[in-house]
Specification:
Blueprint (H helix, E strand, L loop, with lengths): L14 E2 L4 E3 L6 E3 L14 E6 L12 E7 L2 E8 L11 E2 L4 E8 L2 E8 L5 E5 L5 E2 L5 E4 L2 H7 L22 E6 L5 E6 H8 L9 E8 L5 E9 L9 E9 L6 E7 L1 E6 L4 E8 L3 E8 L5 E3 L12 E2 L5 E5 L8 E8 L5 E8 L15 E2 L5 E6 L6 E6 L1 H4 L2
Parallel strand pairs: 1-26
Antiparallel strand pairs: 2-29, 3-4, 4-5, 5-6, 7-8, 8-9, 9-10, 11-12, 12-13, 13-14, 15-16, 16-17, 17-18, 19-20, 20-21, 21-22, 23-24, 24-25, 25-26, 27-28, 28-29
């Protein structure tokens, strides 16, 4: 690949779109939503956002993020949190039409709160932070955000220390399931279980962690990345990664990829996953994979030049994704793929900020509205971190 080329390879083959990005937030602070795998909207169209006062450093314990909704370019606050990070925020999302769930800190531990965003009333506090919610809102999955903060800065939370941080693979911590009705939680898979199940070279000498938990559309299974650091190895950022799927109660653990690197992914349907991974046969690219089967195929090879944050529309007709900055112009791209025709549209190109430290970078993390008409994303292309909207209805509704 010619990294000095003015644009990424294959870009001339894409369908270019003249789509204007509109800033949805004020210009008085730093605004962002967070990760790509959850929607910032409810059915009424209220748009969630976080607001902070700085941008070029990691959060320190005690730094609060304000939580609110964006309406007509204004930020209306309803809560705040001490548990947030640049890449995934505080996992804030609508629980239902009137309530929002998010992570916070209380009594020397990370927790999650259910809040009526119209009144600011805290309705319930769970004794564990959430990582992802089931689609039917019956359960959540949780992990150790302090371990994640240490091993993957920018994705976890600072401010908590506990004895398990001294162990490479503790047997009493790992992936937890929270019953959202009762608040009770149980350990589904421990770090020790995952280490012994994986049993790959270098794993027993290094600290392991998990990241990127995501439930299948029918909530019967979930995926996650099991990682450990292998210093000096020829792997992405010196990590080894095994991509697992698992039954919702911790049963039927299945290794989907163990060839060194798995990155961002999304469930295409109950049985298929799209993920940017390394495969010995075809190299690094997006693959369509079949859960619990050794079946995969490259997805639109020659259309996306690198890793991206992919999601699917509610009707599965569209795949939305983005890119990291291309070296020569340091700009990120947003793409839409028509899954029926395999046509790929270049929706926008947005300048990034090379002065932001790696954990503080502003990935676009694009999200598509349920009616397929609007893309929401975070960006710094106007000099300040902000939440932006793009009307893509001329692509998706034509």
């Amino acid at each position: 690949m010619d990294w000095n080329a003015p644009v990424p390879p294959f870009e001339d083959k894409l369908i270019k779109c003249d789509c204007k990005a509109v800033r949805a937030c004020p210009d008085d602070a730093q605004y962002f939503f967070g990760y790509f795998d959850k929607s910032p909207w409810n059915r009424s169209g209220d748009l969630l956002s976080q607001r902070v006062t700085f941008s070029h450093r990691q959060p320190r314990f005690g730094d609060r993020a304000e939580l609110g909704v964006l309406r007509d370019g204004k930020f209306i606050a309803f809560a705040s949190t001490l548990a947030w990070c640049w890449q995934q925020g505080c996992m804030m999302q609508f629980f239902d039409e009137d309530t929002v769930i998010f992570n916070d800190f209380e009594n020397d531990q990370f927790v999650s709160r259910l809040c009526n965003y119209k009144t600011g009333e805290i309705l319930k506090t769970y004794d564990r932070p959430i990582y992802c919610l089931s689609n039917d809102r019956s359960y959540a999955l949780s992990l150790d955000f302090a371990r994640l903060d240490r091993e993957r800065p920018g994705y976890g939370y600072t401010g908590v220390w506990h004895k398990n941080l001294t162990y490479a693979a503790p047997a009493d911590d790992g992936i937890w399931k929270i019953d959202l009705k009762t608040g009770e939680s149980k350990l589904l898979l421990s770090y020790r279980q995952l280490r012994d199940k994986t049993a790959m070279a270098g794993l027993y000498d290094n600290v392991c962690w998990v990241n990127h938990l995501l439930c299948s559309p029918d909530d019967k299974r979930f995926g996650f990345l099991f990682r450990w650091r292998s210093v000096g190895a020829n792997t992405f950022m010196n990590w080894q990664t095994v991509f697992y799927t698992c039954g919702a109660n911790g049963e039927d653990l299945y290794c989907l990829n163990n060839e060194g690197m798995s990155s961002h992914y999304s469930w295409a349907d109950d049985n298929h996953i799209v993920c940017f991974i390394a495969r010995n046969a075809y190299g690094w690219q997006h693959y369509l994979m079949t859960d619990r089967m050794p079946v995969e195929q490259p997805l639109s090879a020659g259309s996306f030049w690198g890793d991206g944050h992919c999601t699917f529309s509610a009707d599965k007709k569209w795949m939305l994704t983005d890119s990291y900055p291309w070296p020569s112009d340091y700009s990120r791209r947003i793409y839409l793929r028509n899954n029926e025709t395999a046509q790929v549209y270049l929706v926008g190109v947005f300048k990034s900020d090379s002065t932001l430290p790696g954990p503080c970078r502003c990935d676009l993390h694009p999200r598509l509205s349920t009616d397929n008409r609007t893309v929401c994303f975070d960006s710094v292309h106007e000099g300040r971190r902000g939440v932006y909207l793009i009307d893509v209805s001329k692509i998706t509704c034509s």
